[in-house]
Design goal:
Layout (H helix, E strand, L loop, with lengths): L2 E5 L2 E4 L4 E8 L6 E8 L5 E7 L6 E3 L7 E6 L4 E6 L8 E9 L17 E2 L3 E6 L1
Parallel strand pairs: 2-11
Antiparallel strand pairs: 1-3, 3-8, 4-5, 4-9, 5-6, 7-8, 9-10, 9-11
Length: 129
């Protein structure tokens, strides 16, 4: 059974930092391209970051570029998202998602569950002023 379990969310003041983790089990993690997608209250899903199956290639949405860093540890079956300089508008449920990494440089920028093979249960990030 495949599981993606996110953790690390919480309440933080604007300007603060958090590190989210996504531990994968039941799948060959090193063969999957991974993404982070978030959903703010009352809004649709927003793709925010992705990495290739090797972790060597990364991509970011403009809304988080320069503030968030994605990393992938294939030895530990874990995906990370470092969130710095948090803003009120970063308040959302954060999900990690996996799709087969067709090539070593493949990046998935999808914002819909249907774009992925596996999807986690999410971890809440709440930013206050």
């Amino acid at each position: 059974q495949v599981q993606l379990v996110e953790s690390g969310g919480g309440a933080v003041q604007a300007g603060g930092s958090l590190t989210l983790s996504c531990v994968a089990s039941g799948l060959a993690f090193s063969t999957y391209a991974m993404s982070w997608v978030r959903q703010a209250p009352g809004k649709g899903f927003e793709w925010i970051s992705a990495t290739s199956r090797t972790g060597e290639k990364t991509a970011y949405a403009d809304s988080v570029k320069g503030r968030f860093i994605i990393s992938k540890d294939n030895a530990e079956n874990t995906l990370y998202l470092q969130l710095d300089s948090l803003k009120l508008e970063d308040t959302a449920m954060y999900y990690c998602a996996a799709e087969t990494g067709y090539t070593s440089w493949y990046i998935n920028r999808g914002a819909d569950k249907r774009d992925y093979t596996h999807w986690g249960q999410g971890t809440q990030v709440t930013v206050s002023s």
